[in-house]
């Protein structure tokens, strides 16, 4: 961190998860609206039609961020609010809404950090093949251009795509996000197109004199392997390729890792979606910074047998579903008995923050990094009008301590965002799993109540800034 550059402390949301107003003011439906309204696979039987109603209450929310001492807010734009059909006619009321949101941030001295795509693909685009269709890459570019033109004079930080790996993985391999597919080939194709779309938008952005910088947000988590024999080393390399390098090498260095396509061919992936003419686009479409969403590491062991399969626990506490992944011919996840877990069975391992940041420093020549998400999901309850989320405070404190140690040891971290600003819809868990610094009473007119963690974060920021 240079001395004159202020460290950014903030929190994050995404459009579908918090805005509500799903069909107001000319917004078109997104893939998630259709899924939540019609799919039998929506086992929570809830939607984000209203969620915490950020569309109408954004000023109250931003004011609370400012009162907490936060100096930045990460949110995403709903593509279908800007372009109801995904392409074609722009919805002026959609532009107006994001103008108001951005201007309100600036009024409260909050730096807007804007993500263009956070999972909510316009339904019209999903219907014609979504990210499997190469045309979607140019549709995204068109949408990105409209946003750059409309907001590029006031937005200092942009991200093209939130978590290309995790989105492609949940939608096309685990099958828990729409369109609920489980197919390695389709997963690979979607992953490629997401990165191509990001590179094209970054190329476009860099052609103009916008005030901001642009990056991509990756679901970062370092890989650790159980053993240390030759098979374990191979499992480590395969898992790092699968979870990280195809995204981070490509968006930071401008080309895919050498071993990626041969390894995909071994898995009988049809690589006809890879085009020679895309190479210069990737090369010129590298990021100014990396957004890193850090929740946990990936702990793996060598692949033994069986078909590719992924278990995700969306039932929560008291469930005996053990989360786990087998990628045929690549690796399997291992289970570390010594690490504590959240109610959904996922590891709570704050040291991964340090390990991952140091690894990124070594791999990528110390690229600037924003921790664009870090959080802890749990069931929060109101007791005597208050929310005592001590567990969240303890865990976030540990993550932040590891981040500060990494900065001390040379990691180029420029900002940190808690997921999430307030309680909102969780993709596979509906409203059961809460992450917010601010409690939302969904049963009681979406009333906002700052949690104990909100006041803890306020103190932490003040202390950091020497106030
Ligand atoms: C990230 C997503 C967020 C958010 C978070 C928590 O991967 O970018 O949108 O949902 O994970 O995930 P979940 O709500 O599934 O626990």
What does this structure look like?
The chain has an 8-stranded parallel β-barrel, surrounded by 6 helices. It has a 5-stranded mixed β-sheet with strand order 6-8-11-10-9. It has a single domain, classed as Glycosidases (TIM Barrel), CATH 3.20.20. A hairpin with a 3-residue loop joins strand 10 (324-327) and strand 11. It has 467 residues and is α/β, with parallel strands linked by helices. It has 15 helices and 15 strands. 6-O-phosphono-beta-D-galactopyranose (BGP) binds at residues 14, 17, 162-163, 166, 219, 293, 373, 377, 419, 426-429, 433.
Map the helices and strands:
Layout (H helix, E strand, L loop, with lengths): L7 E5 L2 H4 L12 H8 L15 H14 L4 E5 L2 H4 L9 H16 L3 E7 L5 H5 L7 H17 L5 E6 L1 H9 L11 H23 L6 E8 L2 E3 L4 H24 L6 H7 L12 H6 L4 E6 L3 E4 L7 E3 L12 E4 L3 E3 L18 H13 L4 E6 L15 H19 L4 E7 L18 E4 L5 E4 L1 H13 L3
Parallel strand pairs: 1-2, 1-13, 2-3, 3-4, 4-5, 5-7, 6-8, 7-12, 12-13
Antiparallel strand pairs: 8-11, 9-10, 10-11, 14-15
Helix pairs in contact: 3-5, 7-9, 8-9, 13-14
The structure holds 6-O-phosphono-beta-D-galactopyranose (BGP).
Protein name: Beta-glucosidase
Family: Belongs to the glycosyl hydrolase 1 family.
GO molecular function, one term: beta-glucosidase activity
Labels describing this entry:
TIM Barrel; alpha/beta; binds 6-O-phosphono-beta-D-galactopyranose; globular; 8-stranded parallel β-barrel; 467 residues
Please state the second-level CATH architecture.
Answer: Alpha-Beta Barrel
Q: How far do the termini sit from each other?
A: 19 Å
Number of domains: 1
Beta-strand percent range: 15-25%
CATH topology: TIM Barrel
Number of helices: 15
The CATH superfamily is identified as Glycosidases
What ligand molecules are bound, each kind once? 6-O-phosphono-beta-D-galactopyranose
- The CATH class assignment is Alpha Beta
Neighbour order of strands in the largest sheet: 1-2-3-4-5-7-12-13
GO molecular function: beta-glucosidase activity
Family: Belongs to the glycosyl hydrolase 1 family.
Protein name: Beta-glucosidase
Pfam family, one: Glyco_hydro_1
């Amino acid at each position: 961190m240079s001395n004159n550059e202020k460290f950014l402390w903030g929190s994050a949301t995404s459009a579908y998860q918090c805005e509500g107003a799903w069909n107001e003011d000319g917004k078109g439906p997104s893939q998630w609206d259709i899924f939540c309204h019609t799919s039998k696979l929506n086992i929570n039987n809830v939607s984000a039609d209203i969620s915490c109603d950020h569309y109408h209450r954004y000023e109250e929310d931003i004011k609370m961020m400012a009162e907490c001492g936060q100096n930045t807010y990460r949110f995403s734009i709903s593509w279908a609010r800007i372009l109801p059909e995904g392409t074609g006619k722009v919805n002026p009321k959609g532009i107006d809404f994001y103008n108001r949101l951005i201007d309100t941030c600036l009024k409260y001295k909050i730096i807007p950090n804007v993500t263009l795509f956070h999972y909510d693909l316009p339904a019209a685009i999903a219907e014609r093949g979504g990210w499997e269709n190469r045309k979607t890459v140019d549709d995204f570019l068109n949408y990105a251009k409209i946003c750059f033109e409309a907001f590029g004079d006031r937005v200092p930080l942009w991200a093209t795509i939130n978590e290309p790996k995790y989105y492609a993985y949940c939608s096309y391999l685990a099958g828990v996000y729409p369109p609920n597919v489980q197919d390695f080939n389709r997963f690979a194709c979607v992953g490629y197109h997401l990165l191509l779309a990001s590179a094209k938008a970054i190329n476009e952005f860099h052609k103009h004199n916008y005030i901001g910088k642009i990056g991509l947000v990756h679901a970062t988590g370092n890989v650790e392997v159980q053993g240390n024999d030759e098979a374990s080393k191979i499992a480590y390399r395969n898992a790092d390729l699968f979870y990280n390098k195809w995204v981070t090498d490509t968006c930071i260095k401008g080309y895919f890792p050498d071993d990626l396509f041969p390894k995909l061919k071994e898995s009988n992936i049809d690589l006809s979606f890879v085009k020679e003419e895309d190479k210069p686009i990737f090369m010129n479409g590298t990021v100014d910074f990396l957004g890193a969403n850090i929740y946990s590491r990936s702990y793996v062991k060598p692949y033994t047998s069986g078909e590719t399969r992924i278990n995700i626990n969306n039932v929560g506490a008291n469930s005996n579903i053990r989360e786990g992944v087998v990628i045929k011919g690549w690796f399997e996840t291992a289970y570390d008995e010594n690490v504590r877990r959240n109610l959904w069975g996922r590891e709570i391992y704050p040291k991964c923050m340090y390990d991952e940041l140091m690894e990124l420093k070594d791999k990528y020549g110390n690229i600037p990094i924003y921790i664009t998400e870090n959080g802890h999901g749990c069931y929060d309850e109101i007791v005597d009008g208050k929310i005592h989320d001590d567990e969240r405070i303890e865990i976030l404190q540990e993550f932040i301590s590891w981040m500060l140690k990494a900065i001390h040891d040379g990691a180029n971290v420029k900002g940190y965002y808690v997921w999430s600003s307030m309680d909102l819809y969780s993709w596979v868990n509906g409203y059961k799993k809460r992450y917010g610094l601010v409690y939302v009473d969904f049963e009681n007119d979406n009333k906002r109540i700052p949690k104990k963690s909100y006041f803890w974060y306020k103190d932490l920021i003040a202390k950091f800034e020497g106030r």
